Structure formats: C-alpha cells, structure tokens
Hints:
5 helices; mainly alpha; two-stranded antiparallel ribbon; 2 strands; Fumarate Reductase Cytochrome B subunit
Amino acid sequence: MLIKNTKNSYGLVAIAMHWIIALLIIGLFIMGIWMRELGYYDPWYHRAPELHKSFGLLVFFLLIFRYLWRQYDPLPEPSSNLARWEKVTSRIAHASLYLLALLVIGSGYLMATADNVGVTFFGWFNTPVIVNSFNHQEDIAGEIHKIIAWIMMALVLLHSLAALKHHFLDKDVTLSRMLGISRRP
C-alpha cells in the first residue's frame, strides 16, 4: 500500500487518519456519556475528564494534520458508479463531520477553560486560555458540546450505514478503498 492517495485508492496516511480519528471520536462520545454518571468519590471522577480533554485535543491536532495532508495529497476520484446526488451528499456529510468535530472540540475547550485555566495535554503542556469572557460559559458551552456531540454521532451512524450500503447492496469499492483492500466494482 502506498503512503499517498492515487487516482483510485486511498493511501496509508489517509486511511490511518480516517480510522484513528473515527475511533477517537466514538471513544470520546462513549467516555463523555460514562463520565456524566461518575459520582464525586469515584476514583475516575477527576482522571476521566482530564483524559477526555487530552484525547479531544489529540483529535484537534489530528484534524489539523489531516487537513494539511489533504492539501498535499488530494482525494481519489469518487467511484464511477456513484450518482450525482451521492457525490454531493458525500461531500456535504464529510464537510459536516469536520465542522461538527471542530464545534465539539471548541465548545469542550470553552467549557474546560471557563475557570480561566488552560487544558493540560496528557501532562506534557497546557493550552492557553483564549476565550473566557461570557457569563455561564461552562454551562452554555457544555450544553452546546452535548447537543453537537449527539448530532455528530447521528451523522457518524448515517455515514457508517451509507458505507455499508455501498459495500453490501451496491457492491462498489467505496468502503473497500477506506479499508485499504482491493475490490472490483
């Protein structure tokens, strides 16, 4: 498998970024639900949010890397058997996933820095507090964070179902290409 994309297939970097970011986002969503149920005396009550914030920042850094990589390494052409509406909705869905991920990260950052303390990245460094300027910042950002996370998970589910539809019903190469396996359309 090649490092870079070709006209017809994804390269190793694009595939790795897709699956690593996907697993992190799904894991962060599950962790977020789990954290809300922790009691104050639970040993994970303080540790889990710190890990959640660190992994959230990791997703942010990976999204930046993925964006820069895409400027250097354009996407393969869409599968030839896709209808125009499928190509358009695919672009909209992918752009929406990026936007929602950035909004979830941004609202999480606003929630985490509401006390004017930066976010620690796995204990290696602290991020600066950029915005801390409105009343009830933690509550408002927290509500936005939760709503957008649920919307994003709904879109992730639709994205996954579309990939399975392409693979099992249409029998095209859409999912195979992102798995890095060869399959004839």
